[in-house]
Amino acid sequence: MKIVPVTANVSLTRDLDTGTEAQRAAVEAIIQQVKETGDEAVRAYTKQFDGADLLNLRVTNQELEGAYAEINDDLIQALREAITNIRDFHERQKRQSWMTTKEDGTILGQKITALDSVGVYVPGGKAAYPSSIMMNVIPAQVAGVNRIVMVSPAGADGKLPASVLVTASELGVKEIYKVGGAQAIAALAYGTDSIKPVDKITGPGNIYVALAKRAVFGKVDIDMIAGPSEIVVLADEKADPRFIAADLLSQAEHDEQASAVLVTTSKQLAEQVATEVERQLATLPKKAIAEASIRDYGVIYVAHDLVEAIDVVNQLAPEHLEILTEEPMNVIGKIRHAGAIFVGPYSSEPVGDYFAGPNHVLPTNGTARFSSPLNVDDFTKKSSIISYSKQALEENGHKISALARLEGLEAHARAIDIRLEDK
């Protein structure tokens, strides 16, 4: 890994991949075709891109039940414990509607309502991602969403991975479609004979899925357009270089464009970590991917002191931040920008990915400066409640009319004045 001194400006931000002109055109054509011919287009694209010739798009109860035979009991127990942890964490995020009254009879409040329906996209292809299901479905359930639809690309055999089906079943998700790619996003947004439209789409996917989500935003809501994964480790001379190297590589193996960064106050630790990364890379199954990530986007910053190191972290605003300093709890309050903060040597980033409870759908590409992890609020909407009494309007009506006329909106002012004439 490159070892460099801290410069004036550091950043993980890069231009998000908006695809080639050909990819954008392909996504637009897919969406239009799904809008026009519905299931026919979905089936055709599923056969073209996934090699699956599907008569029925929806997963049957028999398929859900049969998946359990392929998963061992220990793994099912681990899934259940992870689900419990994740649900418990998100239950603590729930907010209540509220109202307040004033002596003049005014009632003001906020009504919180769950979304009616949500579509969850689960990536497929080369790997299965049960954790993605848990992190998207559970906060929606906790929020009170009545209809949760899951879509995921089938293999050429027309099946979804057993681990995906078992996880969905454990969560109680029954409406599952063996559809992926831009055609799945289009179906969720506009609806087909088989798939009724939803109000919001969440979940990660490839460039075609990302472009499709971007294209349907406005017709439906979406969670985010995520960039490549990121990890920043903040460490002092007391940290274990083996732990740091392992955690950096845990993100580097995601993608050739993933960012793995160490910010440290120790030049000696920097050199030890660089050596350890090379040692651990040698036996990594996804060595080619991780090696490219470390080469192109991996860096070790050496700061003069902890104050400068913390400033670097806040500039980077990382998706994942690990604090491996002698007194990590003293550092947390100084961190302003990070999607998830992992504290201490035994809080490795995968703990949060799979089991601890907090959501692993996190802001990337520096957007932790202004956005948050996926959470229960993302699956609710808020309505303001305003009830003015006659007394309140009589006392304040002339002020409201004056403000309306200040903006040149006479009809607004008259809507108030006409009520004051009857006093």
How would you characterize the overall build of this protein?
By secondary structure, the chain is an alpha/beta fold. The chain has 3 domains: 144 residues, 3-Layer(aba) Sandwich (Rossmann fold); 202 residues, Rossmann fold, CATH 3.40.50; 33 residues, no CATH class. The protein has 16 helices and 14 strands. The strands form 3 sheets. Strands 1-11-10-9-12-13 form a 6-stranded parallel β-sheet, sandwiched between helices. α9 links the parallel β9 and β10. α5 runs parallel beside α6. The chain is globular. The termini are far apart. The relative contact order is 0.15. The mean pLDDT is 95.
Short description:
Belongs to the histidinol dehydrogenase family. Keywords: Amino-acid biosynthesis, Coiled coil, Histidine biosynthesis, Metal-binding, NAD, Oxidoreductase, Zinc. The chain is built from 16 helices and 14 strands.
Task: Label this structure with key terms.
423 residues; alpha/beta; Rossmann fold; six-stranded parallel β-sheet; five-stranded parallel β-sheet; 44% helix; NAD; Histidinol_DH_monofunct; oxidoreductase; amino-acid biosynthesis; histidine biosynthesis
